[in-house]
Structure prediction request, 167 residues.
Amino acid sequence: MSIVRWDPFRDLEDVQRSFSRLMDPRSHADLRVGIMPVDVYETSTEVVVRADLPGVQADDIQVQHHDGQLFIRATRADSLPADATWLLHQAPEGELTRGLTIGVPVDLAAVHATYDAGVLEVRLPKSEHARPRAIPVRAVTPSSRAVGGRRPSDGDDAARSGDAPTQ
Prediction:
C-alpha cells in the first residue's frame, strides 16, 4: 500500500474544471433539457396555467389532464439553417414537457386552452364542490340548548317537542 500525498491545489483544479464544463453550453449540449417556464395562479373559481412556448406552432402542443395532473407537451423544430453553426445555443429544441399537480378538483368538461403570441394559457375551472362557499351559522337559543347533555338536531322531533330522553 502506498501513501499518496494530498495536494489541495489539485482538488481545486478539479473543481474549477468541473465548474467550467458546467458553465460552457458546448460541453453539455446533448444534456440540454427542454425547460418550459410556467406561471400558475388560482382564483376562487379556477386555476390558470401560462406556459412560455416561443417558436412553437399551436399544432405542436398537446395538453392533457389526468388524475389531478396537468401535462403539457410541445415540440420546437430546429431553426438553424443548413449552412450555419451555432455560436450560442440556449433555446431548447425538440420535445418540451411539463407536468404540474393541480391541487383542487377540476371540472374537466369546462377546461380550455388558448395559444397566442408564444404563450399557452390553460384555464381549469374548479369543480363546484371545490369552490369556497359561505357556511351559515345558527345562533343557539336557550330553548335549543342541550337537554341531558345532548344537542337537538334539526330532524329530532322529540327534542323539539320537549320529549327528549333524560339521563
User: Anything to note?
Assistant: The two ends are 87 Å apart (CA to CA).
